[in-house]
From TrEMBL:
Reaction(s) the record says it catalyses: S-(hydroxymethyl)glutathione + NADP(+) = S-formylglutathione + NADPH + H(+); S-nitrosoglutathione + NADH + H(+) = S-(hydroxysulfenamide)glutathione + NAD(+); a primary alcohol + NAD(+) = an aldehyde + NADH + H(+); a secondary alcohol + NAD(+) = a ketone + NADH + H(+)
Domain called Enoyl reductase (ER): residue spans: 18-377
Alphabetical UniProt keywords: Metal-binding, NAD, Oxidoreductase, Zinc
Gene3D superfamilies to which the protein is assigned, alphabetical: Medium-chain alcohol dehydrogenases, catalytic domain, NAD(P)-binding Rossmann-like Domain
Record family assignment: Belongs to the zinc-containing alcohol dehydrogenase family. Class-III subfamily.
GO molecular function, one term: alcohol dehydrogenase (NAD+) activity
Coiled coil: none
Source species of the chain: Lachancea meyersii CBS 8951
InterPro entries, alphabetized: ADH-like_C (IPR013149), ADH-like_N (IPR013154), ADH_3 (IPR014183), ADH_Zn_CS (IPR002328), ER (IPR020843), GroES-like_sf (IPR011032), NAD(P)-bd_dom_sf (IPR036291)
Top-level taxon of the source organism: Eukaryota
Full protein name: S-(hydroxymethyl)glutathione dehydrogenase
Pfam families for the chain: ADH_N (PF08240), ADH_zinc_N (PF00107)
NCBIfam families named among the record's database cross-references: adh_III_F_hyde
Length: 381
């Protein structure tokens, strides 16, 4: 009934950096060729949404509809869409997978170039927006997803159909945080049985690295976080040790000294899940000489740069990065859903808060409290 027509629906609009979102009625245009319109049922708020809203994202532009950790049901598709159909249950993918570009066919990366340039400018691949406010002004898209709207339009390469038995109110988390951390451990780093691992930052991303390391049988999984309240979670997700650098170090001792001491020379793998460039340096320098690898996952603000003595790299430590855990969304998401059904991948455990969509600004507040991993918003409320 709605196919081919504009839809009026509720959305949360970020009009200005650093200001609360405005929940209001917007108009969502029908999908054009190679586009899909999705009714979003559930979305979580990721730290990256808060990062962009704060104004420190070099790609952040306003007014925009943020949100990228969402799941819903396809309402209609534009011409030439073959990978999904109306009624399919889908997860939005901020890392597209066209399966044709130089990146997708390289078998070296999950980064896809098909829509990334326009995605970074907040528009659809044809350079225009599908969102308009009541004044008729265009609203920008975000990360190719814009899940903070009851209806959104995505490029077909940015959508994956999933097993309809998967509960959308839970697996929406596979749209970012859980997949990112888990994939960073099992794909980007490809940690192995017996490896030693340190994870800096015990949010959803860091704790998902921990569960990946546990699945692979790593011998030591050390979580480093400045908040003691994260200790119980760390242990529940599989950490063997927890260090709070604010209180667990001797006078004059650094976190690098401590980690190197308790691991007989340093770790096989470390992961930054904080976005703090000083932590990124510590994570690299805590790696074992000769082979230790440090994976940067955290997103740092505009203008921030990483540094270390080149000698750290000369002597065999490796700095790597990971986006969306190295996971190719369209090819590999259903594998993660199977792991979830088989009890190998924890997802539900990250949902500490649930709210109606109109409470979205409270969900951003939740992020700043130590008792929150993810708040899932119900778009029907
Ligand atoms: N590369 C990618 O594909 C992706 C990157 N990200 C990025 O990953 C990072 C983590 O995301 P998420 O887990 O959602 O975020 P959270 O904010 O939930 O987790 C970060 C954790 O790090 C802790 N922390 C802060 N400073 C330090 C420090 N100096 N040393 C140790 N721990 C510290 C925080 O403690 P406290 O709560 O007390 O501040 C918090 O527990 C973010 O930067 C996010 O933008 C997210 C998804 C995908
Ligand atoms: N826009 C930022 C970069 C933000 C960033 O690094 N995003 C991550 C995902 S964060 C998800 O919560 C990512 O996958 N980056 C790869 C990409 O292609 O965007 C900036 O310009 O610094
Ligand atoms: Zn995210
Ligand atoms: Zn591609």
């Amino acid at each position: 009934m709605t196919a081919g027509k504009p839809i009026k629906c509720i959305a949360a609009v970020a009009y200005e950096a650093g200001k609360p979102l405005t929940v209001e009625e917007i108009t969502v245009d029908p999908p054009k060729a190679h586009e899909v319109r999705v009714k979003i049922d559930y979305t979580a708020v990721c730290h990256t949404d808060a990062y962009t809203l704060s104004g420190v994202d070099p790609e952040g532009a306003f007014p925009a509809i943020l949100g990228h950790e969402g799941a819903g049901i396809v309402e209609s598709v534009g011409e030439s869409v073959t990978n999904v159909k109306p009624g399919d249950h889908v997860i939005a993918l901020y890392t597209a997978e066209c399966q044709k570009c130089k990146f997708c066919t390289s078998n070296k990366t999950n980064l896809c170039s098909s829509v990334r340039a326009t995605q970074g400018k907040g528009v659809m691949p044809d350079g225009t927006s599908r969102f308009h406010n009541a004044k008729g002004e265009d609203l920008l898209h975000f990360m190719g997803c814009s899940t903070f709207s009851r209806y959104t339009v995505l490029a077909d390469v940015s959508v994956v159909a999933i097993d309809p038995k998967a509960p959308l109110e839970k697996v929406c988390l596979l749209g970012c945080g859980v997949t990112t951390g888990y994939g960073a451990a099992v794909k980007t780093a490809n940690v192995q049985k017996g490896d030693t691992v340190a994870v800096f930052g015990a949010g959803t991303v860091g704790l998902s690295v921990v569960q990946g390391a546990k699945v692979r049988g790593c011998s030591k999984i050390i979580v480093v976080d400045i908040n003691d309240d994260k200790k119980t979670w760390a242990s529940e997700f599989g950490a063997t040790d927890f260090i709070n650098p604010m209180k667990d170090l001797k006078k004059g001792e650094t976190i690098v000294d401590k980690l190197v001491e308790i691991t007989d020379g340093g770790l096989d793998f470390t992961f930054d899940c904080t976005g703090n460039v000083n932590v990124m340096r510590d994570a690299l320098e805590a790696c074992h000489k000769g082979w230790g690898q440090s994976i940067i996952i955290g997103v740092a603000a505009a203008g921030k740069e990483i540094s270390t003595r080149p000698f750290q790299l000369v002597t065999g430590r490796v700095w790597k990065g990971s986006a969306f855990g190295g996971i190719k969304g369209r090819s590999e998401m259903n594998g993660l859903i199977s792991d979830y059904f088989d009890g190998k991948l924890k997802v539900d455990e990250f949902i500490t808060h649930r709210r109606g969509f109109t409470e979205i600004n409270d969900a951003f507040e939740d992020l700043h409290h130590g008792d929150c991993l993810r708040t899932v918003l119900d778009l029907s409320k």
